[in-house]
């Protein structure tokens, strides 16, 4: 039985295909269209899922959509009416997309996919909850979902047991921890629904001097509930989410690209502290209410890995599962699992341990691409490639690492990664100036062998999806200057031989040379672009940046050898057809 899940029309559209309850394929639309956070109907992601399974839509038994558009529209209309006539410009700006796309999902599915069969619509937070619980290794667990807003819900919790789940309680719009965080993200000059993790990184440099003041804007209570003071919010502006009062009390907002001042850093720190405390209070309440020791979380706020680490430490749970696409793109997976288990009553047998659910490319395809474009390369044995790549990283070269199937979710986890030497004291600056061009306050993440990670990091559980921060051990911080954040933490990926044997073998090779089983692992993309998907995307990114070597499967390309290749005339066999 095949179930196709779809999420789209807000941000990060995606598709997931299940076969008999196992994920065959899952990917974000942005990876194919190369438009970051693409929210269009994910026709390319769906096409990929079907090709991966070797089927057509005729073989699909059920299609699920990750939210209930009419219910969401009700909230949108309610808000418009509440703020009328001031809301008129927003109303006029938003209505066309509601009337032509968002309320016409069944029609779009029929037209674009030729689908006439069964469709299931579930609530946004049910999708989040299902995406968190059903692929988890737990037979029974508490579930907590927290985001900006779905239809009306902004947070929910309940319990999953076997192939069923139930959300007991919810918090509703306009009270929202996610919208509070996003509002201040926008005020600080960063992109809403995109750059929240930058604010999280910035927070580490500040002091929570605005903590009390900010509690006037957002208050949380011991039972985990919370309240936004609406005097500080403006949900009816096209440009911003904060009100004139917020600006009066917190000062002029930072424009994108302007210098980040101490004031902004301290605001980020105060905001992050409130978010962490609210999440811990909420999770603690969920633990008491459910009496369970395992927690599954999803929703955009569950991507805040600093808050996640505090929940694991302080909320009374023994284990936490956050699947890699915990934000809205994970909704396609959530609705697919919900339809299969909860609606159709099928039993669970699948655990999402490997995040490598995107497209993969054979050595023959890569060789053909390199030859068609006359790109000089060396082809080595797998062992030869591993040894050579480890030597390149040891010699402080920046390596583009393209292997196997692409990761599911926003993090590069060792298949579409840029790798570098974490022991080089200036590697963060080198990576930033030559490749990533990121804000210099943002840390780079380490990847370490699972079995040796505890010698370098304080970890409570393995973290193959990079969803938790941890402390770098005091005695190791000087050894790993390029991955240790200002506050002594790191967002670690533990690399398990069973989950990613090739990446594990590479770090083992690196350890043989250096004695240290840790490398820098950052996503294979440049600022403003999605992570690379195909060998063509990888080569273009490599050619256009200061990456020194590109390692694709067993093929190694030296930057020095590609000066004659015209990037604009490359033959791309995967053009919108990956
Ligand atoms: Fe969401």
UniProtKB/TrEMBL annotation:
<feature type="domain" description="Carbamoyltransferase">
    <location>
        <begin position="3"/>
        <end position="336"/>
    </location>
</feature>
<dbReference type="Pfam" id="PF02543">
    <property type="entry name" value="Carbam_trans_N"/>
</dbReference>
<comment type="similarity">
    <text>Belongs to the NodU/CmcH family.</text>
</comment>
<feature type="domain" description="Carbamoyltransferase C-terminal">
    <location>
        <begin position="390"/>
        <end position="559"/>
    </location>
</feature>
<dbReference type="InterPro" id="IPR003696">
    <property type="entry name" value="Carbtransf_dom"/>
</dbReference>
<protein>
    <submittedName>
        <fullName>Carbamoyltransferase</fullName>
    </submittedName>
</protein>
<dbReference type="InterPro" id="IPR043129">
    <property type="entry name" value="ATPase_NBD"/>
</dbReference>
<dbReference type="InterPro" id="IPR038152">
    <property type="entry name" value="Carbam_trans_C_sf"/>
</dbReference>
<dbReference type="Pfam" id="PF16861">
    <property type="entry name" value="Carbam_trans_C"/>
</dbReference>
<dbReference type="InterPro" id="IPR051338">
    <property type="entry name" value="NodU/CmcH_Carbamoyltrnsfr"/>
</dbReference>
<dbReference type="InterPro" id="IPR031730">
    <property type="entry name" value="Carbam_trans_C"/>
</dbReference>
<dbReference type="GO" id="GO:0003824">
    <property type="term" value="F:catalytic activity"/>
</dbReference>
């Amino acid at each position: 039985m095949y179930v196709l899940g779809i999420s789209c029309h807000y941000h990060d559209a995606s598709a997931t295909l299940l076969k008999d309850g196992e994920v065959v394929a899952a990917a974000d639309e942005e990876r194919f269209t190369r438009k970051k956070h693409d929210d269009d109907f994910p026709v390319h992601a769906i096409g990929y899922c079907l090709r991966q399974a070797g089927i057509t839509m005729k073989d699909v038994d059920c299609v699920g959509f990750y939210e209930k558009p009419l219910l969401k529209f009700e909230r949108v209309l309610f808000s418009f009416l509440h703020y009328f006539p001031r809301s008129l410009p927003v109303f006029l700006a938003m209505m066309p997309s509601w009337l032509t796309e968002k309320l016409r999902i069944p029609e779009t599915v029929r037209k674009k996919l030729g689908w006439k069969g069964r469709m299931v619509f579930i609530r946004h937070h049910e999708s989040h909850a299902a995406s968190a619980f059903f692929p988890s290794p737990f037979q029974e667990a508490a579930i907590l979902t927290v985001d900006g807003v779905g239809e009306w819900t902004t947070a929910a919790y309940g319990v999953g047991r076997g192939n069923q789940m139930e959300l007991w309680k919810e918090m509703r719009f306009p009270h929202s921890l996610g919208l509070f965080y996003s509002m201040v993200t926008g005020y600080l000059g960063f992109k809403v629904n995109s750059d929240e993790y930058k604010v999280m990184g910035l927070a580490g440099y500040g002091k929570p001097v605005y903590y009390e003041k900010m509690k006037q804007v957002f208050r949380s209570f011991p039972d985990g509930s919370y309240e936004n003071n609406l005097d500080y919010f403006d949900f009816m502006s096209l440009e911003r989410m904060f009100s004139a009062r917020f600006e009066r009390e917190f000062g002029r907002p930072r424009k994108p690209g302007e210098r980040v001042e101490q004031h902004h850093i301290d605001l980020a720190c105060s905001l992050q502290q409130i978010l962490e405390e609210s999440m811990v209070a909420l999770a603690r309440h969920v633990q008491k209410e459910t009496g369970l020791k395992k927690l599954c979380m999803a929703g955009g706020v569950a991507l805040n890995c600093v808050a996640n680490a505090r929940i694991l430490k302080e909320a009374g749970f023994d284990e936490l599962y956050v699947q890699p696409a915990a934000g809205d793109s994970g909704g396609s997976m959530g609705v697919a699992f919900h339809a299969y288990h909860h609606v159709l009553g099928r039993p669970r047998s699948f655990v999402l341990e490997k995040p490598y659910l995107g497209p993969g490319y054979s050595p023959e395809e890569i060789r053909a691409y390199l030859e068609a474009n006359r790109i000089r390369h060396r082809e080595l044995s797998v062992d030869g490639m591993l040894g050579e790549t480890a030597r390149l990283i040891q010699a402080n070269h920046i390596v583009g690492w393209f292997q196997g199937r692409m990761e599911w979710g926003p993090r590069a986890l060792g298949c579409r990664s840029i790798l570098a030497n974490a022991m080089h004291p200036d590697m963060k600056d080198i990576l930033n100036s030559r490749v990533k061009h990121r804000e210099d306050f943002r840390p780079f993440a380490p990847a370490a062998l699972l079995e040796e990670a505890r010698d370098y990091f304080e970890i409570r559980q393995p973290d193959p999806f990079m969803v938790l921060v941890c402390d770098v051990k005091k005695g190791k911080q000087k050894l790993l200057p390029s991955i240790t954040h200002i506050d002594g933490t790191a967002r670690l990926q533990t690399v398990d031989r069973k989950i990613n044997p090739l990446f594990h073998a590479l770090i083992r090779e690196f350890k043989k040379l250096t004695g240290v089983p840790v490398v820098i692992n950052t996503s294979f993309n440049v600022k403003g672009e999605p992570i690379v998907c195909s060998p063509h995307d990888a080569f273009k990114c490599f050619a256009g940046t200061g990456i020194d070597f590109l390692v694709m499967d067993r093929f190694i390309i030296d930057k020095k050898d590609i000066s004659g290749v015209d990037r604009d005339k490359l033959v791309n066999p995967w053009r919108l057809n990956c």
